[in-house]
Design goal:
22 strands, elongated, OB fold (Dihydrolipoamide Acetyltransferase, E2P), 5-stranded mixed sheet, single chain, Elongation Factor Tu (Ef-tu), domain 3, alpha+beta, disordered C terminus, 4 domains
Length: 392
Amino acid sequence: MKALLPIIIILVGLIIGYFQFILKPEPNVVAPERPITGVEVITVQPKTIQLTVSSQGTLLPAVETDLTAEVSGRIVQVADHFRAGNSFRQGDILIRIDPADYKAAVTARAAELANAELTLAQEQALAEQAAADWEALGDGDASPLTLRLPQLKQAQALVESAQAALAKAQRDLDRTEIKAPYDGIVLTKNVDIGQYIIANPANPIARIYATSRGEIRLPITAAEANFLDSRTKRQRFVTLTLPNTKSDETWQARLARIEDTINPNSRLLYVVAELPEPFTETAQPSALRRGTFMAAEIEGRAVQNAYSIPRYALRGSNTVYIYTDENTLETRTVDILKSDAKQVVITAGLNTGERVVISPIAYYIEGMDVSIVNETIAETGARTSVSAQLMQ
């Protein structure tokens, strides 16, 4: 009996466990509820958007000249302000060449002119006498030689030649004073007092530039050129700033021209901005130096009935999420005119008053339920700038 007791205990335990398993209550099945995602939206409104194109370039003078001597000689005087970096005014004498030989040439040419005028006066008198003698004693028509007409014509030519020689000698004398052709600044100087210079255009004595006007060539892509309305005669402006500095000054330049040539290496073309008197003390807001590197915002054409949304609201390359009246999300394909790191300009695919989702979504299912946690109404101002980043 004692040997059967453990077996009996095990069988009783199995029977009790069996009835507990078959008689256990069925568990309640609860379907999990899908959480509703909260989103931020922006209500879009059509507006007129003033496009701009961003670029950068170097400020250089519009006029830069190699100054050369037109006569040879030794330099006897150099102006104090004729040094690299110094400014000068139009008409200032920069260099004076020894004028002694040229003064002597003027005197000699004046003497030759006086002799020619004397010869002309004598020939005029002889011609008048010959005409009178022929009228009194001659018969028929007199020959030109009889009336001394060739001699008179020769004397007149000698006078004109002597006058031209005197004028040239006077010009050479005047050219011993090298004067400034405009208001400007000396860039480089290659000669100094006591030096003998030769009249040779290939050997400039200095390089100068005008302070009246500066130009900046701004590289843009061919696609960005389409955003600049070059067909209208309305004057376009370029706002210039100093990048990588703490200065908040801005200079207002004029869009002078768009070059039609595309660089075969970079595939870029250039817009030229013109800045009046950038190197003078009266420049506004302050004077600039030649070679200053500047950033530019080029005013382009205006786009009617366009939409502007933040760049981070764009999903993929050309889609956005629309918040519908049923509190769900819908994917919408849009036509993008321009986009940069901050904003996107859309010309088609959106309607007035629609709400575009601008917050990130961890997972997306078409038609998913969402709720608005923050709503912003887009600006409806008449002019909003959207910059186009330079693609190189």
